[in-house]
Amino acid sequence: MHRRHLLIGGASLFALTGCATAGAMNAAAPSAAGLEEDLRIARAVLPNTPPRAELLQPWTGPYEGVPPWNQVTAPKLREAILEGIELQRAEIAAIANNPEPPTFANTMVAMQLAGQPLDRATAIFGVMTSNIGSDDYNAVDTEVSPLLSAAGDEITFNERLFQRIRAVADNAAAAGLTPEQTRLAERSRDSFIRNGAALDAAGKAELGRINTALANAFTSFSQKVVADENTWTHIPNEAGVAGLPDSNKAAAAAAARARNLSGWAVVNTRSSVDPFLTFADDRALREQVWRKFVNRGDNGDGNDTNALIAQIVRLRAERARLLGYANHAEWRMQDTMARTPEAAMNLMMRVWEPAKARVAEEVADMRAIAGHDIEPWDYLYYAEKVRKAKYDLDQNELKPYFELNAVKRGAFYMAERLYGFTFTPVPAGSVPGFHPDVEVFEVKNKSDGSHVGLFYSDDFARPGKRSGAWMTSYRLGWGYDGGGNSLVSNNNNFIKAEGGEPILISLDDAETLFHEFGHALHYLSYKVTYPGLGNTPRDYVEYPSQVHEHWVLSRPILDGFMRHYQTGEPMPQALVDKVEAASTFNQGYATVSYLSSALVDMDLHTRATPPTDIDAFERESLARFGMPKEIVMRHRLPQFNHLFTSDAYSAGYYSYLWSEVMDADTWAYFEESGDVFNPDIAARYKSIILAEGNSSDRGEAYRRFRGRDPDVAALLRVRGFPTS
């Protein structure tokens, strides 16, 4: 996800955590011979039962094997997941019941190998439910999500397995494990404990009940929000689209025709709604579009999510208490850089008051032009008027330079200059895609032409596809099993133009594209031995993506790719100067809309008594924080997919702010070198920040890269705020 418009004040980020680690951790991998011997031992432990289901088979075809999208159906996927669970169950039983004493090879490496057929099926499952989302896949999702949750609990609750993992971790030094092996064993032990492995039988049964109920609720929430987003505002008369740029008018007309309507349609997704709110002159229509968008999941109908949210937060609170934590946030933040809700709140509150003060200034400027009070559906519209008046900058001047395909080529160029990756379209028809719109690119190392992986680009909105922008990995090459390539995708929701017309996107959309591409570059760069060390902390994972947004307006990319779609001329420096001069414009709005969502998230998940009336809680929480009436949360609770389609970002939406301190400090490092494509800094960034995954402590890794903790003043300079 993309969100860079923040500010903070104060000293070192890591100083806020109280948990910085001193000294470097050498995450040295074992020798090739040692790895091979570990693999031999691990494979001997596991049963050799070939899978029967088609979608469990090893992927075949070119590029080291690719997902068989052309063979995927909902019934086949259901069959594969059900069988995959059984195969994984047998593998886990073999590891847990091994009569040999526990070792790193026969326990930890065997765990890394277990469940590979199921992994292949669930990779396909995640794509079909998020990117296609038809009724048949939704039915499979509803059925198998609780089964997958229960299968995960079954592994965690396996007492013999847990005791073996704990024995390996507790005796790591005596066994002579490398730092990387020790980290894998200790993190596995600690994760098992955090997730209930140390509970008694009754506690495990109760936790299993809670987790299954949550899995069902997450699936239902996702499907309800997607259904509410598959709506639109029909505009039959041209007066209703007055003020819209031609490219947005064309997209709205295409959206109407696709729905067998005359006139124009504003689809209920952000990429369609935000341009309408920014440029449409009809105030009443702006309000109508705005209300439809912000009330997704909150209409008192069959897609209303409020009761589900109340159920989710109640279940989360019960789980936290069962596991010995005061609340859900305390439990979720054990394995983050911030570590505690208090550290995250301290950072957010240091931002909140200056952000609100900036909103008051912005509203005063807009009211002077509007001649009336500013309502939330007015903010973007009049902000654009103020931008034009203050900086002589019209967003419509920028869009002709950001043609979608050109922006993608600019992102590819950034990857080549920084990391030596090249992206080449694969021959048509040689690699199946999950939808005809998907483009596939081969990724290679420019230095020697060696193959790295494939990049799937899924750019367009469609019914059933979830909203927003995100990155997905289908497969990553791990060092423990001979390496291999990586298969990753970026997924956006741009509105497709008709008849081959160019798709012009905003600067914000271009930054979003570079952001998600930054996630892909992170995973394409991985040189991680064990899959268990692949996932970085939630408040670190957005850092590599956020920093890549800065390169959008770098001169080499502007000159080479962001050229006017009609004249072919690069963006003139005078226009770039206007953009830079206005770069801190509207930061009150951007910061408050994001940060209000993060604050309410943390407030919700630290309550001693979970609320039952979610709308009332949201209003009360915002009132206590002093939310400006002219702005709405970027993600209101009834549609907050980050929080309620899984646990992933729950009590963790603050992570964008936490990551941005490192992002700004890293960009300053490049700028201060005099070359934003500095090859030495880029090489160290790739090898330390990107390639290591979570093989070493990420705070210590940043210090190895930068030579110190991140400097918060760098972010203040980026945002145009005083540094003292």
Distance between the termini: 31 Å
The CATH class name of the domain at 36-225 and 304-335 reads Mainly Alpha
Uncertain parts: 1-27
Second-tier CATH architecture of the domain at 36-225 and 304-335:
Orthogonal Bundle
Beta-strand portion reads 5-15%
The percent of residues in helical segments reads 40-55%
Rounded radius of gyration (Å): 25 Å
- The strands making up the biggest β-sheet line up spatially as 3-4-5-7-6
Here the CATH topology of the domain at 36-225 and 304-335 equals Neurolysin, domain 3
Query: Using DSSP, what is the number of strands?
Result: 7
In DSSP terms (H or I, runs of 4 or more residues), the helix count works out at 29
Organism: Brevundimonas balnearis
Family: Belongs to the peptidase M3 family.
Domain Peptidase M3A/M3B catalytic: 277-718
Cofactor: Zn(2+)
How would you summarize this macromolecular structure in one to three sentences?
53% of the residues lie in helices and 6% in strands. With 724 residues, the chain is an alpha+beta fold. Among the domains are: 36-225 and 304-335, Neurolysin, domain 3, CATH 1.10.1370; 230-294, no CATH class.
